[in-house]
Amino acid sequence: MKTSHRMTGAALAVLAMAALTSCGSGSDSGTAAAGSVTLKFLIDNSPATVDTAKALADTFMQANPTIKIETETRPGGSEGDNIVKTRLSTGDMSDVFWYNSGSLLQALNPAQTMVDLTGDPVLANVAKDFLPVVSQEGKVYGVPGGTAMGGGILYNRKVYEQLKLEVPKTWADFVANSDKIKAAGIAPVIGTFKDTWTSQLFVLGDYYNVQAAVPTFAQDYTANKAKFATTPAAQAGFDHLAEVHAKGYLQEGFGSATADQGMKLLAEGKGAHYPMLSAQLPPFVATMPQAATDIGFFGIPGTDAAKNGATIWEPAGVYIAKTTENLEAAKKFLAFVASPAAADAVTKAVPPAGPYRITGAELPDDAIQAAKDLQAYVDEGTTAPALEFVSPVKGPSLEQITVAVGSGLTPAAEGAAQYDKDVEKQAKQLGLAGW
Amino acid sequence: MTTQDTGPRMGPGPAPGRAHARASRRRRDAAYPYALYLPAAVVFLVIFLVPTAMAFYFALTRWTLFDSEFVGLQNFRDFLAEQNLRIGFQNTIIYAVVTSGLKVVLGLLLGVLLTGRLRLRGFLRSVVFFPTLVSTVAVGITFAMLLKPQTGLVNQALALVGVDGRDWLGDAATALLSVALVDVWKGVGLATVIYIAGIMTIPREYYQAVAVDGGGAWHRFRHVTLPLSWPATYSVIILSFVGGLRSFDLIWTMTRGGPGFTSDTIASIIYKQYQAGFFGLSTAGNVILFIVVTAIAVPLNYFLGKRQVTA
Amino acid sequence: MTALRRLSGEVVALVLATAIFLVPFGLMLLTAVKDPEQAIDLDFAWPTSWPVVENFMAVIEARDYVLLRAYVNSTIITVASVALLVVFAAMASFVLQRRPGKVAKLADFLVLSGLIIPPAVVPTIWLLQALGLFKTLPGMILAEVAFNLSFAMLLFRAFVAAIPRELDEAAQIDGCSGMRLFFRVIFPLLRPVTITVILVSSVNIFNDFVNPLYLLPGDENATVQVTLYNFQSQYNTQWNLLFMDIVLITIPPLVLFVFFNRKIVAGMTAGAIKG
């Protein structure tokens, strides 16, 4: 009896306390002191984004003392997609937010949820070829945050030097190199299938070659006319993945290795090639300085050496939520984000993983090797944006399918067919025309 | 000692007359007023049932969170046509049976052991309960470390006794069972505390009676502890079986349903649809899972409830 | 002789239990004190350097001391929701078990549904918004009560069944019924299972991760589990800091458990039914 009384008492006391404390930290995101404004800025929690956002916010606040930027982090990946969607759809989004460009943006209903920036001076310095990936139906919604990155093969230049290898221009060269590397007792290809997303690179990073062989693929694919399984150039990515496994190129334990471990293997020269995004590198340079110079980048080679090139991932966008009460301050911030001064500030905090999409912003001379390699492709004009930036269609199960193909559980052709089905499901769920 | 679970129960003594019965029922109703349901019912109804009912409507729509379009049963057809649903279904059953079975057996054994006259009882209780306190994410990462092919402790220990380990989580043949065993590691502490409570509730007199009859430890276990800790067994079975049927968080942190799709369960397939932003489809999957689990759990609940009467 | 055998048996049990249950914890501790480069390996190698203090401070200071705020928030949420949960669930289970009929059948079904159906996140947000409880601790507390109610009721109901009805009848003759019957006679007898429910549901709620992520967004509202995201992202993980964080958020409940262990056992025994 005594206990129960005490317990209910305690419960009520705690509840009362909870009610009080929560009132204190209510939602006062709007104006703070007289004349000053606080902008909330939602970003993903990857170290590169956190550091970039911090550099942007700090530099901006120095120049604009009346505007305070408060960053708030969220998880990345599909969990993060859902948080962003939930917050936009429940009207609870921060004033400004950082989110992917390309197909993922299309799923956010920008017309309903974001401020239209078309023709706004905010866009003055944004590279023209970036605009399509932050647009829907001709209206522009964002500015580029961070740099573009390459999706292809990160390779250990020391290993290449030792074995006197040359950067391969065709897939056959790549296989020949890998055989020599294997003979030298080094794992030719690093697989890190514990982090399933890393298994997709052979397929997604091959898009430059797909587009070189079938220029209309993106269009036809979006319109439900072209398929991976029936387009040999598109299925090649799956074939490569199966071949790498069948030839025993992967290191031991690829099934349970993580992306971080893969990067370490590459930097230490225990593995020679790592199909990866170049943006993975900068956070590593702090702990492993040799990664800046020893690791290079090349695009996944195709069948024709004359048509060699690389696939590029566009930077994420920074957007303004329609629900913001501080539109003017938010636009001021976006204009800064898309300025060469902002790029300089970011470069100081995070070594760029590729070229900026801001006119007048250049890579520094001491940029990491992989970024320089990527810049060379850009300068030659031999790049193509990844498929997800030119088509809204992307199946959600690709990473599981590529793990299955890359582990020898599923034949390449079957994997490509499974992915076509997966894509069909997504297109239907998006309600796209022609599916 | 034990009371009936369902159906009206008459008091002891000769069968009462009609009027008498009505009077006694009135008295009984007064003793157990429905008002005691009220606080629980209000919270449950408002915060759980209403959103759930709304969600069930969305199972019939193509729902992007921003707008929804009524599509009838299309989501259900799509979910049932999901490429790996059959593997998922098999895995779900295997996982639920393995985890709940082991939790019952080990939980009961540990419960008996830890209510006995063990000197280190207190310490061991803390040790067994400890995994329950660790978050799933931490458990997932730690065991992924222990189960790694070359450097993992499990394989190093196996190598000492001359057994060749494998890439437990990266190998399609062992991934699901490895996760199930980790689930048992994490969940057995909970089963154990429920059993400890159950065994503690058994009146001492029963044990004394067995002692008077000259029964040994096995006799005590078989004829007193086992039958009289039935409420605990019932709770552990229902909780861990239903938990096993809809489990995905540990699977998700350890294998993401992989390699490929080989350790997918229905719940992880649903979660993937949700992650992909197919909210209507994932809700339809949840409705299907609900029907499947209900179809298994209701008869189980009924059967176990019956046992309770005769125990 | 038997004493010796007994002792050796206990030693074996101790060694086994330690190996199975504590080795993983040792691994967590070890990783928590390594430098970032070595921590990536995620193995049992002895640390080459010991940045214990650095890691500790990095975790505490991360994102403007969010961990400390998270502790306060998680404690409030856990204590308040468990208190409400125990009282609500015990009361309801008592009637449910004692008064069979149509209402009980419905309640039974709802309890089972609550166990089976995962909470619908987005509609729950709408609802909490409509009630003005979204992004508030009271809203989160009520949500945790609702989500854990089924589990608590299942346990309570099974154990109410073990309390002889004769006790109710005796109490009724003394003029005790309804609320008074419950609080004076039944609830004290439920102490062993009450302690179990408190234990288990506080662990569940303290460790809840998905619900606070959606129902209580924002740094000022962070809960301990959400702080794990400070060190683990899709692309990179700072393993040493992640594990330091894990250790830091696991130890307080562990210490509490060890500390109260004796009391817990005493409470369970005191509640045992005599006769």
Automatic annotation (TrEMBL), chain C:
GO process annotations (BP): transmembrane transport
Major localization listed first in the record, in broad terms: membrane
Chain segments annotated as transmembrane: 12-33, 76-97, 109-128, 140-160, 181-206, 239-260
InterPro entries per UniProt: MetI-like, MetI-like_sf
Keyword Mitochondrion attached: no
Subcellular location: Cell membrane
Keywords annotated in UniProt: Cell membrane, Membrane, Transmembrane, Transmembrane helix, Transport
Cellular component terms (Gene Ontology): plasma membrane
ABC transmembrane type-1 domain span: 71-260
Family: Belongs to the binding-protein-dependent transport system permease family.
Protein's UniProt name: Carbohydrate ABC transporter permease
